[in-house]
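Write out a record, focusing on structure:
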Amino acid sequence: MSLPPGFLDELRTRVSLSSVVGRKVTWDARKSNMAKGDMWAPCPFHQEKSASFHVDDRKGYYYCFGCHAKGDALTFLKETENLGFMEAVEVLAREAGMPMPARDPKAAQVADRRSQLTEVMEEAVKWFRLQLKTSAAAEARAYLAKRGLPPAAQDRWEIGFAPDGWHGLQLAMKQKGIPDDLLVASGVCAKSDKGGEPYDRFRNRIIFPIRDGRGRAISLGGRAMDPKDNAKYLNGPETEIFDKGRNLFNHAPAREAAGKDKPLIVAEGYMDVIALAEAGFTAAVAPLGTAVTEDQLRLMWRIHDEPVIALDGDAAGTRAALRVIDLALPLLEAGKGLRFAVLPGGMDPDDLIKAQGAGAMQAVLDAAQPMVNLLWKRETEARVFDSPERKAALDKSLRAHLKRIADPSIRAHYGEDIKRLRLELFGQGGAKVPAFRQRFTPKGTPLPPTAAARQSLLAQGQPVEEPLREAVILASLITHPALIHRFETALERLDLTGEDHNILRRLLLTHADTDAARLHDILRAEAGAALDALMRRPHVQIAPPLRNPLDTELATLCIAEEMAKLDAHRAARREVEDAVQDLTGLADEGLTWRLSKAAEARHRADHPAREETGDMGEDRAALSGVLQAMIDERVWEKKR
């Protein structure tokens, strides 16, 4: 609709900018001069602690010296409340007590229609919530309780239940005087192909209301109670008030929480968002049954400058991350980015929080990677660059991705990071060098070690394999505490390396009868640093017992195998040490026999599938080389 001349000027005169902004910020009393209308505060558009956001009440404009956001009262409402221009005008007009000009009849009709549909949705939400209290919803209530949602949490999220009938909602709404055409238009009912009355779209499902940025109910999501249902999750259809690609689940509460310095976390579904919010990560949102769209991405950036995409640790989660990268590259702007938090394999945020607590989720978020790292990983993972042609193909692909970044400054910084990663991969000589060989320049000068290499156990002069196996055993028992009693004796006898491992072992044995949630709380309280260090190790995160926290049988087999291998490796090492101590002079048959038996024991532990065939393959050559080196170095002679 068009506004008469002078209407906006009078509106801005009647409503002070500081009163509008003051609802979202805390003024800095030391810098502000209220008498002159010169106000300062931390910026509500980006995360900061200093007061760089300036409001000039006399001129009616604001400006941030940090992120360069600027505008008037209408702009501020549009940006902070996610409102359209006319919606912002209506909000300010109500505050100023000014009647809105007469609207175009057609536009008024459209607005009235949208209001009617949101009212229908609100009535449907109320009815579904009442159904969750009935006897027919006993199974649904039990499911929600099992997922860690008590009645109070169910009320907070306005969760409801759709009974297993075709016309329950339709008849209830009809009794309230709501016509069938509005039920169909709102999406809560579907039109019958046979010409009969509309039927309920949601049946035998747990119902989650979907609200827009202003808190209005615009659609519903339903989780099937019947495992044989064709769709586990069902969203309402596209309607006049609901566009899946332009809305986010939990939008308004997440926006408010992000304004209080909470990180914006983007999960995959309703239950993930609810689990995150109940665990304290209140700025959590999810797309609505579709891959993230461009509109949703822009909406996320309006909420927070750097959303964290929390991805399930499986193949589908990885594919989702790659789609987001392709979508985001052309849209990147200075100060607007993405980070990616990859969860342990097979787990989503709900699984992780229930299994290991909020601290484990926080550790995953703290380890979130910038988008450039995932772009590099996608282009290089599982590929070998042993020829000029393959390296040229990598360069071509990376150049194509960089060209898609519109902002020249961001494109330049991405290029610098890609160049650094390329040097780490190929070295200054440009050839990919196997990880087990020392890295040299063409002139033979050793290259400086990478940061990862300097932090490794090898670089620190520590034994490598045994601490890694110990870590997998301890982490597996933490994830599957029901198995502690089964391996109690073996765990007690383990000769663990490092104080952290011994502390965790002691706590596991002391609290073996404690449930998983309580055990994790105890470990977090008494050995938080040791627990974090253990769970952050990459080889621990990919261990099958952690990637499959519900598969106890798999965990049992894996723990038993790791303990057997650890025992075999230590036996082999002790045999060699004893042989060196016992023998002086030249080698004899006894030494040869002892070394060969130690090698065989270790090989059987590493390659049980080859034991029956006796085929050692390439390992025979490797083992022969090791033994020959020991003979050449005369290891049986005591060094003086």
In short: The longest strand covers residues 217-224. Residues 383-448 form one domain. The chain has five domains: 7-96, 104-242, 252-382, 383-448, 583-640.
